[in-house]
C-alpha cells in the first residue's frame, strides 16, 4: 500500500462524509459516501478473497485518497451526488446528464399557455413533464396532447383587444387559436388544466371534467361546443382502454429495477399513475460501479429525481438502499409531501419490480449489442490512428478546428470534440474573431487556439476547456499546422497537430504535419473517421457563419425603419420570427405587436416593401 494512502487511512474519523479517490494523473476516479468514513474506506484496502473484480481494479488504480467530513448522512449523500456530477469519475455509477433529454413544457405562468419540447428545466413557473428518453416519444406525446387539447405552440403576443388571423394549425385542429378570440381565456385555461392532468396520468379526472364541461354546454344550448368536448371524451376513453390497470385505487408510484453483469448496470423506471402503467424509462449506468447493490440504488434514485421534476408519493425498489430514510426525507422535501420508499417481496408491487428488472435486462442487452460493439470498433480505429501518426498514446480526446467567413465579415471558427471516437456535442464551442478583422485563415486559427488554450491555462471550469486533447486536427494543409504549432509553442503546450487536407473535389484526402504526408485512401476506416471529423468541424463553423449573416441581414433591414429601436425590433422578430414574415404580414398583424400601432405598422410595411427582393 502506498505511504500517502496509509497515512490517510490512519486519520479517518468515526463520522459521516465523502471520500475521493484519484489516480496517478491526479484525476478523480471514484467518489463514495459513508455513514462512518473509517469503516467504509478501510474496507477497500483490506486483503479479502471475496473482493469482486471491479473493486480490485479500482483499488489498483488509486494513487491518492482524500475525504470530506459532513455533519449528517444526508449531507454526505447530497455531496456525493454533487461531486459525481462534477468529476464524472470512471468507476462511479453515473447517470447520463438528463439536461440533454427532452421534456414537455407548458407555460402555465402565461395568460395563454403554450406547449413545447425543451431540453433544459428552468425555474420559470412553467410546468415540466418528463424525462423522455426518446425524442420520437416526446413528439408523439405532444402531437397527441394537441389533438386532444389544442394548445398553441406559437410565440405570438396575444391580447384580447387585438385579434389576429388564425394560423394553419387552427384549420387542421391542432390549435384553438386564442389569438383570434375563438376561445375565451377561461375555456382555454380549463383545456390547459386538462392537458396537465393528462400528462400526469390523471385521465379519470380529465374524463370527469370533460363530462361536466360537455353537460354545461348542452344545458346552455351550445351544441357545437358540446360536440367538440364529446369527441375529446371519446378519444381519451379509447386511449384509456389500452392501458393496463394494476391497482383499483388511484395510486401514483414509480417502480425501479436494476440489472447487473460483471461490468455494467442498467436501470428501468416504470411510472404508475392513477393505478395505470403510463410510461417506462430505461438507462444504462455508465462506469463499472464498484459498489454494493444498495449503494447503486442510492446513487441512481438521487440522480434520477434530481433530474426529474415529478416525484410520486411512493417508490418501489428492487434493492434496499443504504440510505432509505435519508432518501425519503430529501425526496419528500422536493415533492412537498411524504414520499414512501419500499422494497416489496410479494404481491402486485413485487411483480412490477420484477417487470422493471426485466426491462433493465433488455436495455443492457441492447447496450451490449450496439454501444459496446461500436465502442470496440472505435477503439480499433483509434489504435490504428495512433500507429499511423506514430503518437505516444491512443488519441481518446480529439479536437478539430475549421474557419469560416464571408469575406471580411462573419469571421468565425468551430471547435468540435471527439471522445473515444464519438462526437461530444455538448463540448462543441464556436468563436467569433475579435482581433482578426480581415480574411486571414492562419491568423484566425491562431486567435482561436490562443483563446481556447488560454482558457485552459487560466483554469477554466468549462468542461470543454478544462482538459487538453491527445490530438489536434485543423482543416487545411501545412500552413494551418504551422500556425497552430506556433501558438502551442508560445504557450508551452505539447500536443500533436495534423492538418486535414482535401483533394480537388474537396474530400478528405491526406493528413499532413509539415514533416509527413499520409494518404488516407489506403485505409477506408481511417478515411471515414477523419472525414466525419472534418465534415463536422466544417458544418459547425458554416452554421455559425450563416447564423451571423442572417442576423446581420435581418437587423440591417429593420434598422432602416424610423422609430424602430432595439425593444421594438426584438418584439417584431419574436412575434414573426423573421423579416420575411414581417414583410408578408398584414397591417393589422403588425400593428397588433406591443408598442407598434397602426401608424408605425404602415411605415414598416412601406420600408420593408422597398427593401424586398
Describe the structure.
InterPro entries: GIY-YIG_endonuc, GIY-YIG_endonuc_sf, GIY-YIG_UvrC_Cho, Hlx-hairpin-Hlx_DNA-bd_motif, RuvA_2-like, UVR_dom, UVR_dom_sf, UvrABC_protein_C. One of its GO terms (biological process) is nucleotide-excision repair. Belongs to the UvrC family. This protein has 613 residues and is an alpha+beta fold. Among the domains are: 3-92, GIY-YIG endonuclease (3-Layer(aba) Sandwich); 253-365, Ribonuclease H-like superfamily/Ribonuclease H (Nucleotidyltransferase, domain 5); 397-549, Nucleotidyltransferase, domain 5 (2-Layer Sandwich); 560-610, DNA polymerase, domain 1 (Orthogonal Bundle). It is 46% helix and 18% strand. It has helices spanning 3-10, 37-44, 53-60, 73-87, 135-148, 168-171, 185-199, 203-219, 223-241, 293-307, 324-335, 347-389, 441-457, 478-491, 524-559, 566-576, 579-584, 587-591, 597-610; strands at residues 17-22, 28-34, 64-69, 103-106, 115-118, 127-129, 253-260, 265-273, 276-285, 314-317, 340-342, 397-406, 409-419, 422-423, 429-432, 471-475, 497-502, 508-512, 517-519. A hairpin with a 4-residue loop joins strand 7 and strand 8.
Amino acid at each position: 500500500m502506498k505511504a500517502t494512502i496509509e497515512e490517510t487511512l490512519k486519520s479517518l474519523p468515526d463520522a459521516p462524509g465523502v471520500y475521493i479517490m484519484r489516480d496517478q494523473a491526479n484525476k478523480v476516479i471514484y467518489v463514495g459516501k459513508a455513514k462512518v468514513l473509517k469503516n467504509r474506506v478501510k474496507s477497500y484496502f483490506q486483503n479479502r478473497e471475496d473482493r469482486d473484480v471491479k473493486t480490485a481494479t479500482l483499488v489498483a488504480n488509486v494513487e491518492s485518497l482524500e475525504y470530506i467530513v459532513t455533519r449528517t448522512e444526508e449531507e454526505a449523500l447530497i455531496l456525493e451526488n454533487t461531486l459525481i456530477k462534477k468529476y464524472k469519475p470512471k468507476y462511479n455509477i453515473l447517470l447520463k446528464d438528463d439536461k440533454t433529454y427532452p421534456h414537455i413544457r407548458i407555460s402555465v405562468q402565461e395568460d395563454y399557455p403554450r406547449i413545447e419540447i425543451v431540453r433544459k428545466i428552468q425555474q420559470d413557473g412553467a410546468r415540466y413533464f418528463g424525462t423522455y428518453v426518446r425524442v420520437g416519444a416526446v413528439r408523439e406525446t405532444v402531437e397527441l396532447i394537441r389533438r386532444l387539447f389544442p394548445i398553441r405552440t406559437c410565440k405570438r403576443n396575444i391580447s384580447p383587444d387585438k385579434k389576429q388571423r388564425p394560423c394553419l394549425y387552427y384549420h387542421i385542429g391542432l390549435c384553438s387559436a386564442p389569438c383570434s378570440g375563438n376561445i375565451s381565456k377561461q375555456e382555454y385555461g380549463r383545456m390547459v388544466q386538462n392537458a396537465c392532468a393528462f400528462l400526469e396520468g390523471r385521465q379519470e379526472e380529465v374524463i370527469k371534467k370533460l363530462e361536466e364541461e360537455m353537460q354545461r354546454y348542452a344545458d346552455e344550448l351550445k351544441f357545437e361546443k358540446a360536440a367538440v368536448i364529446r369527441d375529446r371524451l371519446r378519444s381519451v376513453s379509447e386511449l384509456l382502454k389500452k392501458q393496463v390497470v394494476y391497482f383499483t385505487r388511484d395510486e401514483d408510484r414509480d417502480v425501479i429495477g436494476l440489472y447487473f453483469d460483471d461490468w455494467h448496470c442498467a436501470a428501468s423506471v416504470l411510472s404508475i399513475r392513477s393505478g395505470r402503467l403510463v410510461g417506462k424509462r430505461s438507462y444504462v449506468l455508465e462506469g463499472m460501479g464498484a459498489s454494493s447493490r444498495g449503494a447503486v440504488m442510492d446513487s441512481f434514485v438521487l440522480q434520477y429525481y434530481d433530474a426529474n421534476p415529478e416525484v410520486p408519493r411512493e417508490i418501489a425498489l428492487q434493492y434496499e438502499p443504504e440510505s432509505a430514510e435519508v432518501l425519503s426525507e430529501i425526496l419528500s422535501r422536493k415533492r412537498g409531501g411524504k414520499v414512501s420508499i419500499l422494497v416489496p417481496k410479494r404481491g402486485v408491487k413485487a411483480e412490477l419490480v420484477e417487470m422493471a428488472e426485466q426491462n433493465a435486462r433488455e436495455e443492457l442487452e441492447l447496450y451490449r449489442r450496439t454501444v459496446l460493439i461500436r465502442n470496440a470498433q472505435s477503439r480499433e480505429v483509434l489504435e490504428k490512428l495512433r500507429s499511423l501518426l506514430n503518437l505516444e498514446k491512443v488519441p481518446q480526446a480529439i479536437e478539430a478546428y475549421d474557419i469560416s467567413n464571408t469575406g471580411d465579415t462573419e469571421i468565425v471558427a468551430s471547435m468540435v470534440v471527439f471522445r473515444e471516437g464519438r462526437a461530444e456535442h455538448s463540448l462543441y464551442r464556436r468563436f467569433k474573431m475579435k482581433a482578426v478583422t480581415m480574411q486571414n485563415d492562419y491568423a484566425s486559427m491562431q486567435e482561436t487556439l490562443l483563446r481556447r488554450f488560454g482558457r485552459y491555462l487560466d483554469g477554466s471550469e468549462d468542461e470543454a476547456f478544462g482538459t487538453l486533447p491527445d490530438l489536434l486536427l485543423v482543416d487545411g494543409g501545412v500552413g494551418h499546422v504551422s500556425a497552430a504549432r506556433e501558438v502551442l509553442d508560445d504557450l508551452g503546450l505539447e500536443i500533436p497537430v495534423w492538418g486535414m487536407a482535401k483533394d480537388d473535389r474537396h474530400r478528405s484526402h491526406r493528413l499532413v504535419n509539415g514533416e509527413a504526408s499520409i494518404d488516407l485512401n489506403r485505409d477506408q476506416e481511417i478515411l471515414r473517421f477523419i472525414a466525419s471529423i472534418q465534415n463536422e468541424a466544417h458544418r459547425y463553423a458554416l452554421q455559425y457563419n450563416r447564423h451571423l449573416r442572417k442576423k446581420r441581414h435581418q437587423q440591417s433591414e429593420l434598422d432602416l425603419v424610423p422609430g424602430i429601436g432595439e425593444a421594438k425590433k426584438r418584439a417584431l422578430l419574436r412575434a414573426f420570427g423573421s423579416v420575411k414574415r414581417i414583410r408578408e404580414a398584414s397591417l393589422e398583424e403588425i400593428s397588433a405587436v406591443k408598442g407598434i400601432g397602426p401608424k408605425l405598422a404602415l411605415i414598416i410595411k412601406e420600408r420593408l416593401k422597398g427593401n424586398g427582393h
